[in-house]
Design a protein that fits this description.
- The chain has 713 residues and is of the alpha/beta class.
- The protein is built from 19 helices and 29 strands.
- The strands form six sheets. Strands 6, 8, 9, 11, 12, 13, 14, 15, 16, 17 and 18 form an eleven-stranded mixed β-sheet that branches. Strands 2-1-3-4-5 form a five-stranded parallel β-sheet, sandwiched between helices. A five-stranded antiparallel β-sheet has the order 24-25-20-19-29, with no helix packed on it.
- α7 (122-133) crosses α8 (157-179) and α17 (515-532) runs parallel beside α18.
- The chain starts with 6 loop residues before the first helix and ends with a strand.
- The relative contact order is 0.07.
């Protein structure tokens, strides 16, 4: 085995060869593409044009000679069902003696004949393959790829292929570390585009182009120069009081210098790093205090070409509190559409990043341009950070704006709000693909026919995509914001883990048909986003559904209440007093944002305010009464000074009867109805549109609830 050389040495040497004029580098650089059917180009109508090695040849030009040594069905494992090292393509690759060897093997090793039996041999077999491929060129440069994705519709996906592929990915990474080979990724660039995999496995021509571009970048180091996500712009807010990671891309091996300076603290912090062979880089700045008026400079400098550099300079940067505001229609509802819109104000310390859709999910058929753009995850318009003014605030989320305004007044630090809410969107559309594949795979199957996806959402998606009334067989080929995973891939991944304090979530209307499924999905949503931001304690505060005449909503509100109690660092804001009996888009949004702000101030910032509605602890019979106990200091009362309304009692049969209720400190005393002999359950506000009036001492309403009598909640 060759001694490992550092990446910078190998990459720079290769790039120098690329830059040599033809008369100096007269002999072509030979490049071997070793692999399986994905390398070969199986399922492509014109593989000799569209297989990734042939596309790569066109990208690299005549300075290179690219050989395609892919073998259909080949395994890396020598004890596998079709070992690559026993195929003619292997012998041809050895004889070719490539100066650069790209290996993509491992996909077929997920076959149950292979990995369960011989997986322990994978790393040794991979190293042996590399040694053999050096036979005619001991100085060959090796680039090895994490295997391409296998879609959930693959017939063996749930029986083991998914997990075995993960293990193989890890093994390939180990091979790179042990051998000194450069590691590239064929998985992640294709993963958000399952429609590019013909049969759940083999890329189409566009997918093969993505693989070719991945290899091209690794060979040449050309990734299009310095790039940072759109969420970095003038006027942005960076999160205070936590290590601050800034990430982006540049050409491979470039030196990256990040400098943050200015502000009232006269800050001047610098960090340097280098972009890796995949063009990625990141630096982590220390925790910062709240501030304004800073400048962020990112300078990328080539280490090969003297004087070649690229720079990004961002002005008017603030350090403060950043919250992501997401969900569906009621979070997206604009300030100008809401009651109290005139209360918007000029505030340089409140900054807004508004991710608006290119196409609304109204009851219309999209044109072909929209459908194609959505398919390619180009759903949101480009956005930049803006200071809050009367003009740009009016189009922003009313709930988010009210939250930010109250947070500004209470904390007296800059506040940044990112809003990417999409009307009608489903919970599952915001969860990452891997989480659903591993923990709720059924929801991915034929999503346009899947009862886990609310029928309204499926119907609207078919309308937008022009599929209404048509027999749709290839669901995976049709992408829409309501599709499972879609909005995570189109609206969360582009944020590139931009540091945030927490999440405000207002959604559920498009999942209220299935309380039990939503309980699982909501847990996965919180888990998914906390994993993405690598913050297991990231606050995740959400809004309970309001009052509306839809039969399933009381049970859904009760489920949301219980979720808040079970999931750490979450809270549910009660809004059953704010709804409209016939309009899901009630207009009084300011109290929602202010209640979210109270929750954040109480739970996340340690302010001595009441931010959570009173919660019942237990219910027990006492003579002819039922006593519902709330925590001490709840100081229960009613919002209108009248007796508490909408309490009901049931026997074991679940037939509920209304009952009289009175407030007694932190207790509610219920008279057992004459129609009830042995009371077993009590419930409150169990009407879709409720007139419930019980509140705590600060006026926060008590949630819809149901509980067993003589049992602890």
């Amino acid at each position: 085995m060759n001694i490992r050389k550092p990446f910078s040495y190998i990459c720079m040497l290769s790039m120098l060869l690329v830059m040599l004029p033809l008369d100096v580098a007269a002999q072509k650089i030979k490049m071997s593409c070793v692999g399986n059917s994905i390398t070969y180009g199986m399922k492509l109508a014109n593989r000799e044009r569209d297989a990734y090695p042939f596309q790569l040849q066109r990208m690299l030009g005549n300075r290179y000679e690219v050989g395609n040594f892919g073998k259909n069905g080949a395994t890396l494992l020598r004890h596998g069902h079709r070992p690559y090292m026993e195929q003619d393509e292997f012998k041809q690759a050895v004889a070719f003696g490539g100066d650069i060897v790209v290996i993509h093997l491992g996909t077929n090793d997920t076959d149950p004949r292979n990995w369960p039996n011989y997986g322990d041999e994978f790393i040794a077999d991979y190293l042996a393959l590399m040694d053999s491929l050096r036979t005619n060129n001991p100085k060959a440069r090796f680039i090895i790829a994490r295997p391409a994705p296998i879609a959930d519709r693959h017939p063996r996906f749930q029986s083991g292929t998914k997990e075995w592929l993960v293990q193989i990915q890890s093994a390939v990474e180990s091979v790179a570390r042990l051998s000194g080979a450069e590691l590239i990724d064929f998985h992640d660039p294709l993963y958000p585009y399952p429609w590019m995999l013909h049969d759940g496995l083999h890329p189409n021509a566009e997918g093969a182009s993505i693989l070719a571009k991945t290899v091209y970048g690794a060979i040449t180091g050309n990734y299009g120069g310095l790039w940072l996500p759109d969420v970095y712009s003038d006027h942005m807010v960076l999160q205070r009081d936590m290590p601050l990671t800034i990430r982006g891309r540049a050409d491979a091996g470039w030196e990256i210098a990040v400098r943050l300076k200015g502000g009232k603290h006269k800050l001047d912090i610098s960090q340097k790093t280098r972009s890796d062979n995949r063009g990625t880089w990141q630096v982590t700045l220390p925790q910062l205090l709240a501030d304004e008026g800073l400048e962020l400079t990112v300078l990328a400098t080539s280490l090969l070409k003297s004087g070649e550099s690229q720079k990004r300079v961002y002005q008017d940067i603030a350090i403060g509190e950043v919250w992501l505001c997401s969900g569906q229609c009621n979070m997206a509802w604009r300030l100008e559409q809401s009651l109290g819109a005139v209360e918007a104000r000029e505030d340089a310390g409140l900054r807004l990043f508004d991710m608006k859709e290119n196409w609304l999910t109204d009851n219309v058929v999209w044109d072909s341009t929209a459908i194609d753009s959505v398919k390619h995850l180009q759903y949101f318009r480009p956005a930049t950070w803006k200071r809050s003014t009367l003009d740009n605030a009016k189009a922003f989320s009313a709930v988010a704006y009210s939250f930010g305004k109250m947070l500004r007044d209470s904390l007296n630090v800059p506040v940044g709000l990112i809003c990417n809410a999409v009307g009608g969107s489903t919970t599952e559309s915001w969860i990452d693909r891997n989480t659903l594949e591993t923990q709720f795979p059924k929801i991915l199957e034929k999503w346009l026919h899947n009862d886990f996806v609310q029928d309204w959402a499926r119907g609207r998606a078919k309308k937008n995509l022009g599929l209404e009334g048509k027999d749709v067989a290839d669901d995976f080929n049709h992408r829409h914001p309501y599709e499972p995973c879609y909005l995570f891939e189109a609206g969360i991944l582009p944020l590139e883990k931009f540091p945030v304090k927490g999440v405000l979530w207002y959604q559920g209307e498009s999942n209220a048909h299935n309380v039990e499924a939503h309980e699982q999905l909501f847990r996965l949503l919180v888990q998914s986003w906390r994993q993405y931001w690598d913050n297991a304690a990231m606050p995740f505060h959400f809004v309970q559904l309001s009052s509306l005449n839809r039969p399933s909503w009381p049970a859904f509100r009760n489920s949301q209440r219980r979720l808040a109690a079970e999931l750490p660092h979450t809270g549910a804001v009660v809004t059953s007093d704010l709804g409209d009996p016939s309009d899901v888009h009630y207009r009084d949004k300011r109290p929602v944002g202010e209640r979210l702000a109270l929750m954040a101030l109480s739970c996340d910032y340690g302010h001595n305010v009441v931010g959570v509605s009173p919660e019942p602890c237990k219910a027990e019979t006492q003579g002819k009464d039922i006593v519902v106990q709330f925590p001490p200091a709840s100081q229960l009362r009613t919002s209108d000074g009248r007796a508490p309304r909408t309490f009901e009692v049931a026997e074991e049969d679940g037939m509920y009867y209304p009952t009289q209720a009175t407030v007694s400190g932190d207790k509610i005393i219920l008279r057992i109805p004459s129609t009830v002999n042995v009371p077993r359950f009590v419930r409150y506000a169990w009407q879709p549109y409720t007139r419930a009036n019980l509140v705590g001492k600060t006026g926060l309403p008590v949630s819809t609830f149901k509980m067993r009598i003589d049992g602890v909640e």
